[in-house]
Structure formats: structure tokens, C-alpha cells
Amino acid sequence: MRIHVVDHPLVAHKLTTLRDKRTDSPTFRRLADELVTLLAYEGTRDVRIEPVDIETPVTPTTGVKLSHPRPLVVPILRAGLGMLDGMMRLLPTAEVGFLGMVRDEETLTASTYSTRMPSDLSGRQVYVVDPMLATGGTLVAAIKELMSRGADDVTALCLLAAPEGVKVMERELAGAPVRVVTSSLDEGLNENGYIVPGLGDAGDRMYGSAG
Ligand code: URA
Fold this sequence. Notes:
Layout: E1 2-5, H1 9-19, H2 25-43, E2 49-55, E3 60-66, E4 72-77, H3 84-90, E5 95-96, E6 98-103, E7 110-116, E8 125-129, E9 132-133, H4 137-148, E10 153-158, E11 160-161, H5 163-172, E12 178-182, E13 188-189, E14 195-196, H6 202-207
Parallel strand pairs: 1-12, 4-5, 4-6, 4-8, 8-10, 9-11, 10-12
Antiparallel strand pairs: 2-3, 6-7, 13-14
Helix pairs in contact: 1-2, 2-3
């Protein structure tokens, strides 16, 4: 497993406003969306392409297009939904699958409550979007599910990551073709499993605490 922390002043600037507890939900959603697009630019660096012949108004030439099968984007519900549009802006022809996962706040373990994805992901590049890589439990379970369906190249895009979660992923997915792209590797987790300094509960900050 590889991790890539995107080091860019615009990413740092947007992330600082996201972290600020005074930032309201509409602004939080807009900034998360913008941040994902910047992460997606980095995260799709290895997206598969193939040559294509075209004609410009001046001359025939060879360019590239995205390969088939098309990439699959998988938001992890609920908070991953807030990252979907930003991802699809860069990969508009990607298909979308959904994984509903919930974290037990006492045991911090993840369980799946809904799955809508193709059963065969052979030869597909998959982009999982989940804002917070905290304990790593949710992402490990999600990526194992994708690989059990044949995915052979998985990139996880996370707004923030904690070193504890990265360690768990490195242990559980050792040698697997998995990459994590994030805007910050934070200090660590607190006793409630929240990332420090973090940004709080990403789902609540996007959508409120009703869900
Ligand atoms: N999930 C969140 O929404 N925030 C954290 O800090 C950790 C997990």
C-alpha cells in the first residue's frame, strides 16, 4: 500500500477552513467538493488510458482516451457522498457503486448495511471516496470487499488520515495494489476515535446530525 499526501498551498488553505468549527454546512460541502477535485487530480495520475487516432482541424494525430472497463467510483455512505461530485467532475464517464458502512462508536468497528456494486470488478480501477481515514476499519473492509469482486487497482481518496489508520491499512492490505491519497496525515486519534486536530464528524458537518 502506498500513501500520498498532497502538498499544495490551495489544498492546505481549503483544508484549514474545513477544519474551522465556525465553517457552516453549505461552505463545508462546497470546500470539500473543491478539495476532492484537487485530490482527484493527483489520485487519477495512474488512470488507465489507451491511444486513440483523431484529426485536428490541421492534421491527423494520436491522443489518448480512458480505457475500458471504465473506472468505478465508490463513495462510502454517508459522508463519502459529499465527495462524489468532486470526483465525477474529473471522471465524468466513470460508473458509480455504493457502499453503506457504519462505525460502531463504542467498538469503532465497521459493518456494511448496503452494497450496490457490480459483482465482477475484474480489471477495473476503483476510486473509493471516504473523507476520514481514522481507525482504518471502514476502508479496510471496503477495499477487501472490492478486491473480493476482482478489483485489481484501488485508490482511496480521503480528506484526512490518521497514522493509526494508515498502519492498520498497511498491515491488513500488505502487498495489495492500493494507494491512499489525502490532504493531510494528522497527529493521531483521540480516545473517541476522532482524528486530531481533524475536523470533527465529517458526515454531521456536511449534512447535520439527523442521520
Ligand atoms: N469519522 C469522522 O467523521 N471524523 C473523525 O474524526 C473520525 C472518523
